[in-house]
Amino acid sequence: MGSLSSRVLRRRPGLPRCDGAAGGDGGGGRGGKRKRGGAEGPGDSDSDGEAEREERLLNTPRRKKLKSTSKYIYQTLFLNGENSDIKICALGEEWNLHKIYLCQSGYFSSMFSGSWKESSMNVIELEIPDQNIDIEALQVAFGSLYRDDVLIKPSRVVALLAAACMLQLDGLIQQCGETMKETINAKTVCGYYNSAGTYGLDSVKKKCLEWLLNNLMTHQSVELFKELSINLMKQLISSSNLFVMQVEMDVYTALKKWMFLQLVPSWNGSLKQLLAEADAWFAKRRKDFESDIAFLESEQGSAFLPVFTHLRLQYIISDLASARIVEKDSLIPSEWLSSVYKQQWFAMLRAEQDNDIGPQEINKEELEANSMRCGRKLAKDGDYCWRWTGFNFGFDLLVTYTNRYIIFKRNTLNQPCSGSVSLQPRRNIAFRLRLASFDSSGKIICSRTTGYRILTLEKDQEEVVMNLDSRLLIFPLYICCNFLYTSPEKKADSEALPDNSET
What we know:
With 503 residues, the protein is of the alpha+beta class. It has 20 helices and twelve strands. Strands 4, 8, 9, 10 and 12 form a five-stranded antiparallel β-sheet that branches. The chain has a four-stranded antiparallel β-sheet with strand order 5-6-7-11, with no helix packed on it.
């Protein structure tokens, strides 16, 4: 500002005045020059003095920035309670507030505008029926009416959400929801999920469910197992989007650990010790009961039946070692297992004798309900080749990761296989392949999917199923697949089985 005033007000010798004076002739314009010694010419004292005063005014140092209106209102009206026209009492605390600000709340707006007795009262006692609401939450909620923004701590967001919902503060409710979405992790996810259900934040509930589907198996923890309710675990286990590591048997093992922690919540130990402790605890129960009933049929275990019904047992009993463990554990009712053994036997006969070459079309409902779920963790970049264990009706599928490609190969004769191999000229497989990388809180950094597809492979044929952009590759990389090796059994065929039994 100082340099600008110099350019405007200081006149160079020989130039006309620029203060707007109309000097009649040229001489009058030049007669007002300043002398070098600083003495003023006759008749110039008034005009020069005015110019100097204006110059000093323009060069006045800037004053400190005034406090913003929002901060002033918050400090003066809310914190100090000046000019308050109503007192709110709740949880043993008092707030001196203002009706004009409280009317931003749907709760108070209805109270003051209707025929309620409170509309004419100066002191109002609030009933707080929600145990999640405390004094600090009310302080922040009331304060939000007097300011533009609120800083929400993740540790306080549930209490604040409860207060915002009671007071019908839509903007604050939305802000709480955004804070919850941004801070989902192993410690907060179950609390957020339950609160989102209680207070109707469906988008938060969906985000929590997605986080759990991605992290339940990939990042197991004792604390998370303890917090997961039966209903929530049922949703996770039944979903085709569950990120499984390594095979379905690992889902069974995770459920066994989770059920133990639900029954013995006081147990404190490491994740490495958990399975051995769970096995020992269930073995002792079998010995104490000395009966043939499975644990899930007992009074203590019956609450967990709805969860275990969603295990895809057909992909557990397809592996001999896994089938023996399940039989030994005696957690699952024998009728369930007998039914699955029968189902798999007929599926094998259809594949062998009916020349079932696999799924002919994408049936999303069938894939989501009955596909095999399996996965793999690639700790660092390199070359990998693997197969998932179990009998897959003679389809020996080899999966290769190399040079940013993921390749499926139908192995028949090129490489040794521990089980029988189908020699049919062509076999179909329905699949969906998903890749994901996670940050330290379990949030997905990058992901890719093929969507559901059907692949036809001849003997020893291989096919690239995904070509990865190196910029998207962040290790460790998690790979999850859904597979369906056989076509669904037709209802007409299954209903005809008893009639054809003699044949």
